[in-house]
Write a structure and sequence with these properties.
The complex is a heterodimer of chains A (113) and B (112). With 113 residues, chain A is an all-beta fold. Chain A has no helices and 11 strands. The chains are: A mainly beta (113), B mainly beta (112). Chains A and B meet through strand 4, strand 5, strand 9 and strand 10 of A and strand 4, strand 5, strand 9 and strand 10 of B.
């Protein structure tokens, strides 16, 4: 298994509070991604990173920000959580050596009440 | 605009029979396709992939077929086993290091 951990694994928070999810990898892979999974939508890309301090938006980036100050860590922040951000969040990584496959972490279940 | 679609939310098959999961795409720039398997409370795991220069790729019980003219791919599992019960996602990409575009997923149930 690819060395990817996510923390926390579960979180319940109130509307309007800030939330930060962490993804940590031990594979030294260049690319890191944040997805959310919702019924009927599959996995949708929120933001991704192609190197330290290099990030870009995905298809559902509104209300989210990211930071990557080290190769191994990719943080996803909900500045002011809303109920529509209740979801399961997955981090993924991939290498830059022509690899298309992405490898996923175990996920974080976030509930915004 | 759903560029990758899995039109069957669920599929039920008997153990030992063939499972066929389907996926359609609209973006002709996609040149690499992947299947992922997901168990409850776990992250998706990579299963098998195919490049657009091929029309078939096989790995043990799993075979992926690609029909570029129809913009359609399918995953065949033969023989199906109860442990194959999971959600299967198809995904597509346009180049290395880029985003994957996922379908909605198909819940496969293999009955003993």
């Amino acid at each position: 298994d690819a060395g990817i951990t996510q923390s926390p694994r579960h979180k319940v928070t109130e509307t309007g509070t800030p939330v930060t999810l962490r993804c940590h990898q031990t594979e030294n892979h260049r690319y890191m991604y944040w997805y959310r999974q919702d019924p009927g939508h599959g996995l949708r890309l929120i933001h991704y990173s192609y190197g330290v301090k290099d990030t870009d938006k995905g298809e559902v980036s509104d209300g989210y920000s990211v930071s990557r100050s080290k190769t191994e860590d990719f943080l996803l922040t909900l500045e002011s959580a809303t109920s529509s951000q209740t979801s399961v969040y997955f981090c993924a990584i991939s290498d830059s050596q022509g690899q298309r496959e992405q490898y996923f972490g175990p996920g974080t279940r976030l509930t915004v009440t | 605009d759903q560029q990758v679609k899995q039109n069957s939310p669920s599929l039920s098959v008997q153990e030992g029979r063939i499972s066929i999961l389907n996926c359609d795409y609209t973006n002709s720039m996609f040149d690499y396709f992947l299947w992922y398997k997901k168990y409850p409370a776990e992250g998706p795991t990579f299963l098998i992939s195919i490049s657009s220069i091929k029309d078939k790729n096989e790995d043990g019980r799993f075979t992926v077929f690609l029909n570029k003219s129809a913009k359609h791919l399918s995953l065949h599992i033969v023989p199906s086993q109860p442990g194959d019960s999971a959600v299967y996602f198809c995904a597509a990409s346009v180049k290395s290091g880029s985003r994957l575009t996922f379908g909605e997923g198909t819940q496969l149930t293999v009955n003993p």
